[in-house]
Design brief:
With about 180 residues, the protein is an alpha/beta fold. About 45% of the residues lie in helices and about 20% in strands. The protein has eight helices and seven strands. The strands form two sheets. A four-stranded parallel beta sheet has the order 2-1-3-4, sandwiched between helices. Strands 5-6-7 form a three-stranded mixed beta sheet. Helix 2 links the parallel strand 1 and strand 2. It is globular. The two termini are about 30 Å apart. About 25% of the residues are buried.
Length: about 180
């Protein structure tokens, strides 16, 4: 659920007022509509950049990263059916590190690579909700099925990125994260 990600962003970087998102037009329009509503309710501006192919995606990322304001804007990497090509992800990570830009993701693996944070499903609670939903549908087969956004989520944080961005996170706040990267050995 974009709302969960945006709320986490507000906690970590309260100066951020604008979020950029680059996405595949058409297939992710429903998610972007949810994100627009969540951003508006939270007092944030969501700047959307729809693309149709990987080339457009790469050009859009370069443009956003070049113009993104380091303290008041953030870049959201949404979950999609395809992962960013390695070259595009490397550009996002290197430019964000070089310019101290906030980048967060819907993909847990991106936190390990260097984005600031992500949210990921609490599979136990999601499974319980899915079971309850299926039980309810079995009792009432005429009820229409709906798409539900995951709201039972864990958080992951890249502490090295947080330190680099100057975000001072207290020990007790770090305990709220299920995963911290880089992982200690």
């Amino acid at each position: 659920a974009p709302r969960e990600l945006f709320q986490q962003l507000i906690l970590l970087a309260p100066k951020v007022k604008t979020i950029h998102v680059i996405y595949t037009g058409g297939e992710q329009d429903w998610l972007i509509a949810q994100a627009q509503a969540a951003a508006s309710e939270l007092g944030l501006t969501l700047n959307t950049h729809a693309t149709s192919d990987m080339r457009e995606l790469a050009v859009s990322y370069r443009g956003v990263l070049k113009n993104q304001q380091k303290d008041t804007e953030a870049l959201w990497l949404p979950q999609s059916g395809i992962s960013l090509e390695k070259a595009v992800m490397n550009t996002v990570l290197s430019q964000s590190w070089k310019r101290n830009l906030i980048v967060f993701s819907s993909n847990l693996a991106d936190v390990r690579k260097g984005v600031l944070f992500s949210k990921y499903p609490n599979n136990k609670l999601v499974g319980e909700k899915l079971f309850n939903l299926l039980t309810q549908l079995k009792k009432n087969p005429s009820e229409k099925a709906h798409v539900y956004l995951a709201e039972d989520l864990f958080s992951a944080l890249n502490t090295r990125t947080a330190d680099h961005l100057g975000l001072r996170i207290k020990k007790e706040d770090k305990r709220k994260y299920m995963l911290l990267f880089p992982m200690s050995k």
